[in-house]
Amino acid sequence: MKRVLVFFLLILLMAPLVLADDDGEENEYEAGYGGLAALGVGLIAAGVVYYSLTKRKLVIVHKKSSEWGFEIRPEHPYMTIFGPVYPLTIHHVLTITGTLLVFVHFFSCDNYSGLTGGTGLAMGIVLVLLNLNGFIGRYIHGKVLLAAKKHDRKMAKKFVGILGHWKKVHIALAVLFAVLLAIHLATGD
């Protein structure tokens, strides 16, 4: 896990140097580092899709192992991924890294007026809320696991109910982000 984290941190540190927008034009309505934003949104999407597919075991099954690897089969499940971390951790690493890359683009903008700027600002706020909400969800999930470990059915039932409400909020924020992203891309240059 440490190697993966170091890899993403190196990308985060080097990417602005490689992808710097240096076309000589200054436009106060246009944010720079569009490539980083695209990479960030791609990482967020990959984290969401990976977690969704492994959680429901639709296409991918994740098995805990000391080594990384994968196996592809012609029958269901079509892909098995082996790794030392859980799918939720992979989801968190990809979405948090993606958010940080998107924020490089977000903070390079000097003017948030107009539809493109307004949706960009709204997306930044929604991303912060989504990440905070994700940390809250991880905390609640930990409480469910702790209650199950202690065989405390009452506490487990309570936190499973809370987790159900949390999930609705998390999905609503993710859908709102996707809608804002579509508007932002459609109205931008």
Structure report:
- With 189 residues, the protein is mostly helical.
- The chain is 70% helix and 7% strand.
- The chain has five helices and three strands, in the order H-H-E-E-E-H-H-H.
- The protein has a three-stranded mixed sheet with strand order 1-3-2.
- Helix 1 packs parallel to helix 3 and helix 2 packs antiparallel against helix 3.
- The longest helix is centred in the last third of the chain and has 36 residues.
Helix-strand blueprint:
Elements: H1 2-18, H2 34-56, E1 60-64, E2 69-72, E3 79-83, H3 87-107, H4 114-149, H5 153-187
Parallel strand pairs: 1-3
Antiparallel strand pairs: 2-3
Helix pairs in contact: 1-3, 2-3, 3-4, 4-5
Query: Got a strand count?
Result: 3
**Strand-and-helix sequence, N→C?**
HHEEEHHH
Q: Total number of helical segments?
A: 5
Estimate the strand proportion.
5-15%
- Tell me the strand order in the biggest sheet: 1-3-2
Residue runs with pLDDT of under 50 for 5 or more positions: none
Q: Main sheet, how many strands, which sense, barrel?
A: 3 strands, mixed
Estimate the mean pLDDT confidence. 86
Structural class based on helices, strands and sheet pairing: mainly alpha
Explain briefly what this protein structure is:
The chain is 70% helix and 7% strand. The protein is built from 5 helices and 3 strands; from the N terminus they run H-H-E-E-E-H-H-H. A 3-stranded mixed β-sheet has the order 1-3-2.
